[in-house]
Write a structure and sequence with these properties.
By secondary structure, the protein is of the alpha+beta class. The chain has two domains: 119 residues, no CATH class; 61 residues, no CATH class. The chain is built from five helices and eight strands, in the order βαβββββββαααα.
Length: 205
């Protein structure tokens, strides 16, 4: 792939997914006080696996948002034994309802975005559009997308994912009406997922 500023950005023949790489969320960085409008900051950002806490990656950064007309964030890390050190420009707009909204300027496309991504095989953080990235659900067949939603609801109830698993008991403090609605939704989605799978494989309903 081309280096930073070369104008050549890697695109996959089958779309890579955002969830398999690293993401910089500008407003999360602001909420967590990693960067502050009107101030200069620096530090280290870490990524880990949510379920296990296993460390995935770290990058160093510094950011200067003292002047909204010339704000930037510098990213420093090692990727495939190559040291990366480059600036990402920031910009602001003023919404109709007042205040100021901050944006990253994608280093590849120079478009305003609130998230930058570093996918597997990439070397610089850039926009989803620059890398041609998809969300995982966009690559999944319909039945898998529906099943994923059902599994997520099962976890919210404290249960295990899987069509063959019993419905989890009502969590303490949850209203019965809410619990019953969630169970009905899980049942509907699992039935719809199985029906979609049968149609895709040509099985008669």
């Amino acid at each position: 792939m081309g280096g930073y500023g070369s104008g050549q950005w890697y695109r996959w023949s089958t779309r890579s997914v955002i969830e398999d790489g690293l993401t910089l969320d500008l407003y999360r960085l602001i909420r967590q006080n990693n960067i502050r409008p009107g101030a200069w900051t620096s530090g280290t950002l870490n990524w880990s696996v949510v379920d296990t806490g296993e460390h995935v990656a770290s990058i160093g950064y510094e950011a200067d948002l003292t002047d909204s007309d010339s704000a930037w964030m510098r990213l420093k890390y090692t990727r495939n034994d190559i040291s990366e050190n480059y600036l990402v420009d920031l910009a602001t707009t003023r919404p109709n309802f007042g205040g100021r909204r901050w944006w990253f300027l994608c280093p590849a496309k120079r478009i305003r975005v609130t998230r930058l991504h570093l996918p597997r095989g990439g070397d610089k953080f850039a926009s989803r559009q620059a890398y041609g990235l998809a969300y995982r659900c966009q690559n999944e067949p319909l039945e898998d997308r529906i099943a994923t939603k059902a599994h997520r609801l099962r976890r919210r109830l404290g249960g295990e994912p899987g069509f063959d698993q019993p419905f989890p008991s009502k969590p303490k403090g949850m209203h019965w009406r809410t619990y019953n609605q969630m169970c009905d939704e899980i049942d509907w989605m699992e039935t719809a997922s199985m029906a979609a799978a049968m149609r895709r494989f040509g099985v008669a309903l």
